[in-house]
Write a structure and sequence with these properties.
Shape: globular
CATH superfamily: Aldolase class I
Keywords: Flavoprotein, FMN, Oxidoreductase
Distance between the termini: 37 Å
Number of helices: 14
Helix content: 40-55%
Organism: Tianweitania aestuarii
Cofactor: FMN
Strand content: 5-15%
Largest sheet: 8 strands, parallel
Structural class: alpha/beta
Protein name: Alpha-hydroxy-acid oxidizing protein
Radius of gyration: 20 Å
CATH topology: TIM Barrel
Family: Belongs to the FMN-dependent alpha-hydroxy acid dehydrogenase family.
Length: 380
């Protein structure tokens, strides 16, 4: 049976993927308080319909930073998406292109941005940056990104160090991945993934690596980084952002802000957009939810820069709730991956169609013609 909603896609992905990879995507950090709070915060938002205001059709188009999107949706950057399906990042790019929405490529993707561009030539590709300790290597990476036709850069600001996810260590899915008997048995019990993903890479490009690491620092995903040069820069600060603003010629977005003070500083220093985000509940377990802080941030800076939001999105109605709280558009990460896991590019297509269908039903129930009309209907 065709999966109908987030839970159907997630259940199919859980059967398809090895436990280590599934939990890497699905779970949170420490006690997973932030992960549960995200769902609770979205479920608590109520939307008041306006009766007898029907429209023949809904218009989902949204303009952000001078670009028109077919939906107020952006594919969030997700590390190792290329392990979910063979050439998964390329498939996501093509699916996003067909859906008329941007796709944000992670610094830690399996496939390099140049190859994603080659496979999805007309996609609106954004690039997410984890700053490396070696700034020269970071600048060289950004030169590659720009040369591939990317104009929107997303700096992740909420991950100075690797978060505390104990289940990854238990599953042998820490960075680097650790081959263990338990992990090997897990993979053997998922032959579809083994043959369809890992062996497909081995037959073509070899053992998967991080596609953006410089050649001299590239190792297989099961190997330890060869140098501290490409480690996360835990000393990242606003001076680094200023330097990045001077270097990057296109749109510059900061992802992972949760306070009005940080949003105001981002605006002052030249950001084009910010993403109000808890990193999907995967980083700081005591962080406030996106829904709680988004309205104040949007009120403070929404007239001066583009405010985006993410974390915890499972349905089209969740997208509308974040838009109603002040976001111009919403990023989704896990959802596209579950589609990718269950059906490759076709599965990702189905996810985007599902989100649009759910948005359409919700907007019709509310009597809305455009997503931007929802704010007065939200009970905060």
């Amino acid at each position: 049976m065709q999966p109908q909603n987030f839970y159907d896609f997630r259940a199919l992905a859980q059967r398809r993927l090895p436990k280590g990879l599934f939990e890497y995507i699905d779970r949170g950090t420490e006690n997973e308080v932030a992960l549960r709070a995200l769902r609770d915060s979205l479920d608590a938002i109520q939307i008041v319909p306006q009766a007898l205001t029907g429209h023949g059709a809904r218009d989902f188009t949204t303009n952000i930073m001078g670009k028109e999107l077919a939906l107020p949706l952006i594919v969030a950057p997700t590390a190792l998406a290329g392990l979910v399906s063979h050439n998964g990042e390329v498939k996501l790019g093509r699916a996003a292109m067909k859906a008329g929405i941007p796709v944000c490529v992670s610094t830690q993707s399996i496939t390099a941005v140049e190859d994603i561009r080659a496979g999805a030539s007309d996609a609106d590709i954004w690039f997410q940056l984890y700053m490396w300790r070696d700034r020269k290597l970071t600048r060289e990476l950004l030169d590659r990104v720009w040369a591939s036709g990317v104009t929107t850069l997303v700096l992740t600001a909420d991950t100075p160090v690797g978060p505390n996810r104990e289940y990854n260590t238990r599953n042998g899915f820490a960075m680097p991945m650790t081959p263990t008997f338990r992990a090997g048995l897990d993979i053997a019990l998922h032959p579809g993934w083994l043959f369809g993903v890992i062996l497909a890479y081995l037959r073509t490009t070899g053992m998967p690596t991080y596609g953006h690491y410089p050649k001299e620092h590239q190792v297989a995903i099961t190997g330890a980084p060869s140098s501290e040069a490409v480690a996360l820069e835990e000393r990242l600060n606003w001076d680094d952002f200023v330097a990045l603003r001077q270097q990057w010629r296109g749109e510059l977005v900061i992802k992972g802000l949760l306070s009005v003070a940080d949003a105001l500083l981002a605006q002052k220093l030249g950001a084009d957009a910010i993403v109000v985000s808890t990193h999907g509940g995967r980083n700081l377990d005591s962080a406030p939810t996106t829904a709680r802080v988004l309205p104040d941030i949007a009120d403070a800076v929404g007239e001066k820069l583009t405010v985006l939001a993410d974390s915890g999105v499972q349905r089209g109605s969740d997208v509308l709730k974040y838009v109603g709280l002040g976001a111009k558009a919403v990023m989704a990460g896990r959802l596209p991956l579950w589609g990718l896991a269950t059906g490759g590019e076709t599965g990702a297509d189905a996810i985007f169609a599902m989100i649009k269908r759910e948005m359409d039903v919700t907007m019709a129930m509310l009597g809305l013609e455009k997503p931007s009309e929802i704010a007065p209907h939200i009970i905060r």
